[in-house]
Every structure is written in C-alpha cells, then in structure tokens.
Automatic annotation (TrEMBL):
One of its GO terms (cellular component) is cytosol. This is Spiroplasmavirus-related protein. GO terms for molecular function: transposase activity. One of its GO terms (biological process) is transposition.
Length: 180
C-alpha cells in the first residue's frame, strides 16, 4: 500500500497518514526486525520493560532505614529537615530529592506515615476567599467621572468611530490627534 517504486516502504507517506513525523515512524519500525512483525501492543510493552530497568533503585542499610523511620515517624521531621539530619548523621547526601521523599511518604514506602507530616499531609482549600492577585484594586471608575471630564483626546482608530455617542454620554468634547 505504501510502497515506493523500488519496492521499499514509503515512510513519509505512512507518517502523513498517521499525522506523525518520519523519524517517529522509522524509530517504531526499527524496534522490530521487519515491518510485518510490528505490533503497537508489543512496542508499548517493550517500552515499559525498558523503563523499569532505567529506574534508580535506592539501597539503604537497616541502620539507615531505622533512622529514617524514627526521624519521620517518631520525631515528625519535615522532609527537608530529615535530609539535613541524614547528612549530619551519615556524612553523605540523601540519595533522593525532597519531592520524591514526599511521594514516598504519601505512598507509604518504608513504613512512612502521612499523618506524621505537618498538617497531616492535607491540602487546605480557600473557603470562599476572593483572590486579588493580578487585579487592580485602586483605580477610578468611569462612572464616578460623569460630568467631570473636560475633554477626551483620542487617536483616529476605528474603536472611536462612535465618538458622538461618547460625547453625549459623558457630556464632554472629543478631540482627535493629528496623524503624524
């Protein structure tokens, strides 16, 4: 179906039909020996198997695991504080990032309890509080200026095409700037 004149597969035609780049199609085909063996299910399965091998596995000694359980469960240290204390005790940097440690606590790895975190791991929502970020709070409304405006100077843009209505509404004079 997607063959060139010389009998080879036309990768660019396949890519256009699938709405993907040529290199993506070629990479998927190269995972298998021939194009006839290709299966999206097998390809996806191979991807996850390779991904499992790439994950970094942290190996801790019993002493380190006990220290982690005591600091996080008994003394209720925050993950940042725990990492600092781990460094002081063992003299090596803790092997995972703070965000990963929070993830481990939420998932319950190594017997960590979410209840021992500050605020017990809860996410508090604002209860009807109005958010004023990114909004102007100290400005003068145009409704307060009716009858007080002496004149309006504008450019000759099409947004001011109904300038006579603006004169009547605001009870002022509208003046236009010279072009140039």
């Amino acid at each position: 179906m997607f063959l060139k004149k010389n009998g080879k597969q036309n990768i660019s035609a396949i890519a256009k039909c699938l709405n993907r780049h040529r290199s993506t199609i070629l990479r998927e085909i190269k995972r298998f020996k021939t194009i006839n063996e290709y299966s999206a299910y097998k390809s996806d399965k191979m991807y996850y198997e390779k991904r499992k091998k790439n994950n970094k596995i942290c190996n801790f000694t019993e002493e380190q695991i006990n220290f982690m359980k005591i600091r996080l469960n008994k003394y209720c240290d925050s993950p940042k504080e725990f990492i600092y204390r781990y460094f002081l005790k063992f003299g090596v940097k803790f092997s995972v990032f703070v965000k990963t440690l929070y993830k481990w606590i939420c998932l319950g790895f190594y017997g960590f309890l979410k209840q021992n975190l500050r605020y017990h791991g809860k996410k508090f929502k604002t209860k009807g509080k109005k958010d004023n970020r990114g909004k102007l709070t100290n400005f003068k409304s145009i409704w307060n200026l009716i009858g007080k405006i002496k004149g309006v100077i504008t450019d000759r843009g099409k947004e001011f095409s109904k300038w006579r209505e603006m004169e009547i509404f605001a009870e002022t004079q509208v003046y236009f700037c010279d072009a140039g």
